[in-house]
Design a protein that fits this description.
Elements (H helix, E strand, L loop, with lengths): L10 H11 L6 H10 L3 H4 L1 H10 L6 E4 L2 H11 L7 E7 L2 E9 L4 E9 L2 E10 L10 H4 L24 H21 L2
Antiparallel strand pairs: 1-2, 2-3, 3-4, 4-5
Helix pairs in contact: 1-2, 5-7
Length: 189
Amino acid sequence: MRPDRSSKPDGRRRRVLLLLAFGGPALLPFWNIAAAAEGSAATLSATERFLVEVFGTPPKPEVVWLTPALQARIQETLGHPYRQARLRYWRANDTVAWILDEIGKEFPITAGFVVRDGKLQDARVLIYRESRGGEIQQSSFLRQFDGAALADDRHLTQRIDGITGATMSVDAMQRMAKTALLLTARIGS
């Protein structure tokens, strides 16, 4: 009789769970190394490519500490605390870039957000791990975020149309976009 393996996470899922438990985006370089070992060279440089496209030569990363007060605001936006004590971001002149993770349905979606003058200039899906809902990676969906700001009621100032079959991924992108705007206001770009 074969043992039931459905309750044991496979190697990739185990790494995702460890990534979430011990640091999220702060550990992305380790995630990328593990993914490269599996033969996924595109994943290895997804974050680096994003930063080069935004800045040309990326500036050195800065860090914002997620104080209890800031964590409380993030929890209002995400519906849960962000599982890190600090987040890296990149800033040059009036442009700030964030790389955030949020669970879609089962797995984290890694997305990059560019904020300029309190508005989203760009939103990109850097790593998509779900089996469904990959349509959120299409530029026609992502362009909806361009120019969005955070309203007083903590909603985006622009309506984001959903995608049938990708509701949870769309919601995750909206939560991350709001978080990027909230964090940018906190660091004062």
